[in-house]
Specification:
The complex is a heterodimer. Chain A is mainly α. In chain A, 72% of the residues lie in helices and 0% in strands. In chain A, helix 2 packs across helix 10, helix 2 crosses helix 11 and helix 7 packs across helix 8. Chain B has two domains: 56 residues; 268 residues, no CATH class. Chain B is globular and about 65 Å long. The chains are: A mainly alpha, B mainly alpha.
């Protein structure tokens, strides 16, 4: 009985961590290049809606994911134009995008699906690999996941390799630390930062799509519920390192999953405490009570050539 | 070194939207940008309504009716503007120290919750006048502490206040939910009439007196309080040493510390005042018009107040205009949703666009001021 609940807990913890892993991994790369996307939550929300709508219209969740990535990357393009080219305040622009995304998705959802629609949309099936399921406790938790969940871990590896072993990764780190020196060394600062933001957008798109077509098979208004902010906090908590960031995302996922475990174990903990726990953990984490690390030196600072 | 010299010695301010007051040839642009972006956003909003096949004239009629169709609606719109104005004032106050308080929603929520708690448990028996004043003060204090927490983390731990105030909002909202959901906290006992998770109605003595009790308008004395707050914040920011010091801390923390300012104190103070104004706004919502606490009473007010603050470009007068604009817009959009069936989310779209356009056009003002 306890085993079964633990399996459900681990499974839902992983499931809830996946969108944050996607978004945080992309955001980590963008921040290493010096651009903070507070609009992450909006990108995820727009992607979740785009995936749901496309999957509902075409019957193909895969098409949903593709469109979601495309849409989120377009939003990122505008964000990059504002943050990099127009050198607008990255935090303010991000907040603006989040308000816009919430308004636009809520409006379109009500117009297209009608209020309070709960029709399931076509989503991905779980893997359910027999050999994996046979492992006690962890087996079912790992196996009752969609393929997209595993893509998130793959993206962590890809991002780590990209940052550490490619010339693009070197450029990203250079423009995030000292854009002027990078510029003098012949690196195109704007182009590198654009690519960083687009990368964050594409991954936020995957994360948002996961929410609607892999996790819940439905769209609800404001369904990200601040997951994008958690992703940004995970990056800070993870000290801008892909693996530590992954750990922070898993922590937030499991903290959220306690909402299901605690009632099942019939523990008398107020629901509100469970609801606020991930955010409280995030706050404690970024307040530096658990060790401090240095952020990229040029984070949120616009760069102007010859200025 | 005197404070004014310190400020002059520092680089030209690089505030959120460029240099404020960089010269008079800029004044038209400073006004033009918010006005134009608001008009563009509203135009897009109308286009969206038209594109859904809804009747634009019907929508506008419903919108107008909701904003100002009756004494009641005008009063309700103004009451909404009071809270938005207070949150907006809080935003510009913190922003003077170069701090961006985006946690208005949480500060409103904490203010409303504590005002309700004090009104229900004790303040009701105080003599008339004191009853609502004490309840309001409780709300403002709760908001101030919530804001000061972010200020403390910023000053002592270097935690970015944008992220911390956002997270504090996500923490405050479940707390309010908890308080109205637990019988041993603020939830009213289940009766035959109602079992909703909400607090009982606050005692009459803790309700804010109405300004025009005879014509059915819900407009209350919070309006006078808000006007006082506007004048006080304007005076402090424009004509006081405190305003100058906040500015100095915001422009260059290290230089200010070397000049002998206790920078941590000013950072915490700025966030406390900012959060306190938000908490007062939340308290006024409950004590002035709603009279009982619900878990989502603050919903949307944080964003609205933030946009008001952003639009104002640091000017208290700008806050007044923005608060009135969004107070009336929000009332209109709610009526539009009810009678013309057009989702009020269209107003969110307009707000998002306004913020993005204004932030994006900052380069215009920045560039001019650099020459």
């Amino acid at each position: 009985m306890i085993d079964e609940q633990m399996a459900v807990f681990i499974g839902s913890g992983l499931r809830l961590a996946v969108p944050i892993i996607f978004a945080a991994t992309g955001e980590m790369l963008s921040e290493r290049a010096g651009v903070l996307n507070l609009s992450l939550d909006g990108m995820m929300l727009v992607a979740a809606f785009a995936a749901a709508l496309t999957s509902w219209a075409t019957g193909s969740p895969l098409a949903g994911v593709a469109v979601a990535v495309l849409i989120a990357t377009s939003v990122a393009m505008v964000q990059a134009f504002l943050s990099v080219t127009l050198r607008a305040n990255q935090l303010v622009v991000g907040i603006g995008f989040n308000i816009l995304a919430l308004g636009a998705t809520t409006f379109m959802y009500r117009e297209i699906f009608g209020p309070l629609s709960r029709d399931p949309i076509p989503g991905f099936a779980q893997l359910n690999l027999p050999w994996l399921t046979s492992i006690p406790v962890i087996g079912p938790a790992l196996s009752h996941q969609t393929g997209l969940a595993y893509v998130s871990i793959l993206m962590v590896v890809v991002t780590w390799l990209l940052l550490k072993y490619t010339s693009f990764g070197l450029a990203v780190r250079a423009v995030g630390e000292d854009p002027r020196a990078a510029d003098k060394a012949g690196i195109n600062v704007s182009r590198t930062r654009y690519l960083g933001v687009l990368y964050a957008g594409a991954l936020a798109g995957l994360g948002g799509a996961f929410m609607s077509v892999a996790d819940s098979n439905t769209f609800t208004e404001n369904m990200t519920k601040g997951a994008g902010y958690l992703a940004i906090t995970a990056v800070i908590f993870g000290g801008w390192n892909p693996w530590y960031t992954l750990g922070a995302c898993l922590l937030f996922g499991f903290a959220t999953a306690l909402q299901f475990l605690v009632p099942a174990l019939q523990l008398d903990v107020p629901v509100a405490v469970l609801l606020l726990l991930p955010y409280l953990l995030a706050l404690i984490a970024i307040a530096g009570f658990v060790g401090k690390s240095r952020q990229p030196a040029a984070l949120t600072l616009p760069f102007e050539r010859g200025g | 070194m005197s404070m004014s010299k310190l400020v002059l010695a520092m680089k030209r301010p690089k505030s959120m939207f460029g240099a404020p007051g960089a010269g008079f040839n800029l004044v038209p642009l400073q006004v033009l940008v918010p006005v134009l972006s608001t008009l563009i956003a509203l135009g897009i909003g109308l286009l969206i309504i038209a594109s859904t096949g809804g009747s634009v004239s019907e929508a506008i009629a419903a919108f107008w009716d909701g904003m100002a169709g009756s004494d009641y609606n005008i009063g309700a719109s103004l009451n909404r503007a009071i809270t938005l104005g207070l949150v907006g004032l809080g935003f510009i106050f913190a922003n003077r120290a170069n701090l961006t308080n985006v946690g208005g929603e949480g500060q409103i929520a904490m203010g409303g919750m504590f005002a309700t708690a004090v009104a229900l448990h004790g303040a009701g028996n105080l003599p008339f006048g004191l009853a609502f004043i004490v309840s309001m003060a409780a709300g403002a204090t709760a908001g101030a502490l919530w804001g000061a927490l972010a200020g403390y983390l910023k000053a002592k731990r270097g935690t970015n206040e944008v992220i911390s105030t956002l997270l504090l909002s996500f923490i405050a909202l479940p707390l309010v939910y908890w308080s109205v959901e637990s019988f041993h906290l603020l939830r009213k006992p289940i009766s035959d009439l109602s079992s909703l998770p909400e607090s009982p109605e606050i005692p009459d003595t803790t309700k804010l007196p109405l300004l025009f009790p005879d014509n059915g308008s819900p407009l209350h004395i919070g309006l006078l309080l808000a006007i006082v707050a506007v004048v006080v914040i304007w005076l402090v920011l424009k004509h006081s040493t405190l305003g100058l010091r906040l500015r100095a801390v915001g422009l260059n923390e290290t230089a200010s510390r070397r000049a002998g300012l206790r920078t941590s104190f000013y950072i915490i103070l700025a966030m406390a005042v900012s959060g306190g104004l938000g908490g007062l706004g939340g308290a006024i919502m409950i004590l002035g018009q709603q009279f009982y606490l619900t878990s989502d009473f603050s919903s949307g007010y944080g964003f609205d107040g933030l946009v008001v603050g952003l639009l104002s470009r640091g000017s208290a007068v700008g806050v007044v205009i923005g608060a009135l604009l969004f107070g009336f817009l929000r009332s209109g959009s709610i009526n539009m949703e009810i009678t013309a069936h057009i989702p009020s989310a269209v107003v969110l779209i307009c707000q998002g666009l306004i913020v993005i356009i204004i932030a994006g056009s900052a380069i215009l003002t920045n560039r001019k001021s650099n020459r």
